[in-house]
Amino acid sequence: MEISAFLLFWAAIFTSNILLTNFLGMCSYLSVSKEVESSMGLGIAVSFVLVFTTALNWLAYHYLLVPFHIEYLQYIVFIIVIAAFVQLLELLIERFAPALYYSLGIFLPLITVNCAIFGVSLFMVIRNYNFLQSIAYGFGSGLGWLLAILMLAGLRGKLREKMVPAGLRGTGISLIITGIMALAFVGFSGIAPIQ
Fold it and tell me: Is residue 46 assigned to a domain?
């Protein structure tokens, strides 16, 4: 049975959230989620990169690697596509949104090595998604990642006023919150699983 692109999109946001289900992309998620504004900027950038690199990697895989029987080069090709696209995005953000560029700092070029982006490209191949399914999955995964980082940033902003034990401040409480959010998202798992 083939999953519709519409269902795949919603499942990628909620039931199979790339960050809260597979825990991919945790480095930038934990580091940038201190402020809602920078979290929103990085989340939008990750979503944008996910949509376009998933589409480009699907095309490269099906029209370059498979016809020439060089599928074993998929890791290298996928990373090159992701790196080139992130470099282009970085130049555009620096040119048109310098405040966002400086608030994201080192984490903008590090989108290249964000394992969530690479993971989505690999999942699309492993699960044998067609082009429309791949785009839906990439867009849904990006929005799911954006939703998770915004939720954590909002909660971390509220926790500043509360008493958090010294040993749990910073990353400790962030990981606990992430675990609780992941448990909450598991509640959606009976709705639309991705296989």
Answer: yes
